[in-house]
Amino acid sequence: MKVIGLLGGMTWHSSIEYYRIINQLVAERLGGYHSGHLILYNFDFAPIDSAQYENRWDDAAKMLTDAAISLKKAGADFLIICANTMHKVADKVEKGSGMSLIHIADATGEAIKKQGLKKIGLLGTIFTMKEDFYKVRLRNHFGLEVITPEEKDHNTIDDIIRDELGQGLIKESSKQIYIDIIHKLMDRGAEGIILGCTEIPLLIKPGDANVPLFNTTRLHAEAAVNMTLS
């Protein structure tokens, strides 16, 4: 079994989900007392959060790269970054650490492609929604048309992630806000919705919309299990 290196703690609420899903899937596939063979590097997220919002992405990349090198020395065979937004620096982390990395957008794009969808809505942090690093990868690698919420909804979505979900707060009022935004994306032709922040599946669940919802946390964890057992 290959050893998974998890760059986690962005935030720890979603990292717990990675840990749970990976262990559950390995146990389901191998049976008995089997569980995931992984090493978790848990960040203090505050400095990374500051680097994001102060546009110090090189600093953020260095933090992740240094951690990835530590995971490599500890015996990890490949990496996953437990956050959609931090894939903005995924190429730098992969190159700087010398380790292969499973990109969360690739795991998500494969799942969307299997369902034959072409136009997809994307929810995430303000960086994931507004910048191109995620949308362009989905377009270039999987031929998807990616749409994001209206500009006026971006800060609302980001604030709920940062001030609530990232701190373990789940509010029904915020859930309804997200569902209303999802419906607006559906009205614009979205055939499915990417829950493109690993905290969003803590709030939005299967059945909350009449289109497929793509849980990036689970899809990424599944891809890691496929790799570790290959």
Mean pLDDT across every amino acid position: 97
Element order: H for helix, E for strand = EHEHHEHHEHHEHHEEH
Main sheet specs: 4 strands, parallel
Query: What count of helical segments does DSSP give?
Result: 10
* CATH C-level of the largest domain: Alpha Beta
Overall number of structural domains: 2
Low-confidence stretches: none
Total strand segments? 7
Gyration radius (Cα, Å) is: 17 Å
Could you estimate the helical fraction of the residues in percent? 40-55%
> Based on the structure given, which CATH architecture of the largest domain is correct?
3-Layer(aba) Sandwich
The N- to C-terminal Cα distance equals 8 Å
CATH topology of the largest domain: Rossmann fold
Shape: globular
Q: Structural class, from secondary structure content? A: alpha/beta
Output the strand order for the largest sheet.
Answer: 5-4-6-7
Beta-strand fraction estimate: 5-15%
